[in-house]
Design brief:
15 helices, eight-stranded mixed beta sheet, 3 domains, 509 residues, 32% helix, homodimer, alpha/beta, FAD/NAD(P)-binding domain
Amino acid sequence: MTWFRNILQITSFKSSFNQKHTYPSSQIIYTTRFFIRNFTSESFQTTPSPSSSPSVSNTITSGLEPTKPNEKPRVVVLGSGWAGCRLMKGLDTNIYDVVCVSPRNHMVFTPLLASTCVGTLEFRSVAEPIGRIQPAISTAPGSYFFLANCKGIDTDKHEIKCETVTDGADSVPPWNFKIAYDKLVIASGAEASTFGIKGVKEHAIFLREVSHAQEIRRKLLLNLMLSDVPGISKEEKSRLLHCVVIGGGPTGVEFSGELSDFIKKDVHERYAHVKDYIHVTLIEANEILSSFDVRLREYATKQLTKSGVRLVHGVVKEVQPQKIILNDGTEVPYGLLVWSTGVGPSNFIKATELPKSPGGRIGVDEWLRVPSVQDVFSIGDCAGFLETTGRPVLPALAQVAERQGRYLAVLLNRVGKVGGGHANCANDTELGGQFVYRHLGSMATVGRYKALVDLRKNKEGKGISLTGFVSWFIWRSAYLTRVVSWRNRFYVAVNWATTFVFGRDISRI
Amino acid sequence: MTWFRNILQITSFKSSFNQKHTYPSSQIIYTTRFFIRNFTSESFQTTPSPSSSPSVSNTITSGLEPTKPNEKPRVVVLGSGWAGCRLMKGLDTNIYDVVCVSPRNHMVFTPLLASTCVGTLEFRSVAEPIGRIQPAISTAPGSYFFLANCKGIDTDKHEIKCETVTDGADSVPPWNFKIAYDKLVIASGAEASTFGIKGVKEHAIFLREVSHAQEIRRKLLLNLMLSDVPGISKEEKSRLLHCVVIGGGPTGVEFSGELSDFIKKDVHERYAHVKDYIHVTLIEANEILSSFDVRLREYATKQLTKSGVRLVHGVVKEVQPQKIILNDGTEVPYGLLVWSTGVGPSNFIKATELPKSPGGRIGVDEWLRVPSVQDVFSIGDCAGFLETTGRPVLPALAQVAERQGRYLAVLLNRVGKVGGGHANCANDTELGGQFVYRHLGSMATVGRYKALVDLRKNKEGKGISLTGFVSWFIWRSAYLTRVVSWRNRFYVAVNWATTFVFGRDISRI
């Protein structure tokens, strides 16, 4: 077998200067052919291995070249939220190749995220892999999903710069690459607002990603268990088990409701020793659910108070590791702090040199195009109508993002069908009707099988408002039909049924 | 409302020197009564708050005092694995108070852990909260679960020293406390063996806890996604997607089988761009499944090879961040390294001054008592028969631990019923029959609806061996009936059905 070892060593030497992948045959008892193919003969390559050149992040050596006229045009989508995913789902992959760039490989079904923090739903039930939403990205030859952040847009060259997301000490260092686009859709969303308040980023937990819900759950269960251990003072116990929610919008109200449900049912049963110490406080500077009908607001206030949530008017001045300082000097000790005061433009959006709408979002026209540049669109929480359109900036809601994604998919398909898919080709194409948003109504749950449904078209309008169990049933049904795949619909239904029968899960994993 | 503020300030001053919990009434719009009760008047306390005295870990100020003759005797269980949980489930809580000390609040259903790494099962389906196994620990006044590690045993004083498990920067620092016991059961398990090989702890992932399975899953999905990004060489891609499993016992074989299943079905469908680069190698120094019948071993070898797992004879010398060095100098590059070469005594067990069995486990007699000390028992992977008993040390298997837990529960209930429950009271009590272990057979799956069932009583004996689909069906059914609660039985069945219909989940959360 010497010939074999020689071949291995020669190919190995030829293919790599930095790493030796020799695999002497004496060690291999089965399927040696695999080893040769993978560790040696396939390794003829010119690009330096990223792990062997840590300086790679400054020199971009590779990426996706511009498409040729005989190839499918390429739509590059930044982000994997409601807007981006709905767009990708609707794009005709016979016309376009789809490339998605996002730091996460799934869409989060945000309206149900609050339920996962206390174990009503499993984390996986609210996460939908992008590969299920648009299967082409994992199978079609020119479509890809890249786990990366966009670092810059060159609208003249029609290309973007990206940096991979990696983690862990043993992982490869992040590296940069470029992607040329025919159409670029910026749907990278917004960031949680902290209003520059000191300590928020360090000590509060937001509620926007699955990882946030996991962190809240781990902390809540840790605090419940720690407060039962001998040696802890009653005062410290009260602090550890004081859950404070800042912000009385739908997310804050739903989370408070879920939390008080969890306390009423599960903590009383499973953490009986400490049940009298746990409390939920919701702090809001103005009014809770300010976008809802006044009758619904009153109902929500009554229901939350009834289920033990303390509603406090206050403005946060500073957040310290174990207490919040309000504007008037009041100190509020806490064990868990959840921050949900709405969203603002992300640093990436702030840094782009594209035109801006009021509020600092990327400015778009009536067709969701970014004017002044070619082939760039923006949808979702990161986009807003330009002042020149005379239209208001739409609220940062899942239904706005979803509707924009659906609209833009139709528009791009129409453009592509008539040959306007490639870069700088769509100047004379008929774009179709403008994007018009019609509000279908708002929903929020307040716990204990109670919810609010506000079916008014706008804040001033008149319309149907519902409260109570019927409303809660509508809330659950509406979400169930919107959860993207059948797999997750099935899982959410099973989760709800299991929680109803067996109670919530309390294992801290 | 000045009277109210004064009361708040006075009680607050009286109760705490270090922290102010004043909550001026002007801010409180609802349920002020709660605040007073929780932040002030309940805070009369003498023990210093742990957070205000970081030095608390050296001075133990509190804990559970010895039980009085008119109180229920207290059984303290160290650990929450198969042995400890089966014991707690069987203990009669009319006779005993049960206190469990463990760094995790759930039992892991270890035989199904390998399936969670690739998304066949959800993580939560294999974790059973201790509060469901023995509800008394969360509700009965004298029974507790403490999230802590045992740091020392004083058999003369009949007490143990513990330190709480905490995490996160904003959490309280860990503190120490004491627990007096009437009966102590050491069931803290074993640790993964590294045989002192350099780099194993730093770079390999074990497969013993849910967190390990989560880490494996995150790394596998990260590597799959990274290897699709432009700028990565083919050689680096092959390295990233090379999954190496060290150890050919049931865990290593099952994980390899699950992984090759995942590759054959899900990677080929969902990561089509990189499917030719991913490979699984199982490295074993001797033979795979060495405890099984020779016919079953041959079958397993054939099945694994057929499904693409490369079996390699080899002894690992050193583990580096991206490659393994074998004893003969061969270098094996890897992207994911899973280490499952069996278990050995933990540092805690090594440090105790109790008698030891061959192999360094805590030595027990035929009734699972630790001789030479009063009221101490040991079960599970941390215990072994003393040489003087003339019996062999039992293998570190779930079924041994489960049988020992069940036996000891019956023994302790019998002792407690005749008044021997309190410390130093059981000298003349009739203990009943000795513990005798009868091996019921071994099972292992090799992926693709194939499994092995070895129903021989021991390695040399003759008996029934099964392979193939029937065997796989038995394997699944057997596990389904053993998953502890109906909730988890239901979930595991639902997970299996969903995976069968929709494929595995690939979201990286």
